[in-house]
């Protein structure tokens, strides 16, 4: 009977961690949106209206790729039971985003 109790406790702990992780990712997204709202006018004036350059591309990658990353991470935590294929594709996409982030200097 104690092994069932231990398994139940482990499952409960994993679910609580998953829920806390989902809340943390959602809070991160909320802060990102808040940051965009605070700086959008300046960004439009100095970034979006500027001619295309390597610095503009790096800025846009580092500024907005984090949204894709956070949404994918939230989906992994929130989806009830994603398939193995979905998990693999999501994991590979997140790894690609991390790599792009590192290469772009973040």
Key phrases:
about 110 residues, mainly alpha, 3 helices
Brief rundown of the structure:
The protein has 106 residues and is an all-alpha fold. Helices cover 87% and strands 0% of the residues. The termini are far apart.
Task: Kindly provide the radius of gyration, computed on alpha-carbon positions and rounded to a whole number of angstroms.
Answer: 19 Å
What level of helicity do the residues show?
over 70%
Most strands sheet: none
In total, how many beta strands?
A: 0
Return the string of H and E elements. Answer: HHH
What would your notes on this structure say?
With 106 residues, the chain is mainly alpha-helical. The termini are far apart. The chain has 3 helices and no strands. The longest helix is centred in the first third of the chain and has 47 residues, at 2-48. It is elongated and about 65 Å long.
Write the layout of secondary structure elements.
Elements: H1 2-48, H2 54-78, H3 84-103
Helix pairs in contact: 1-2, 2-3
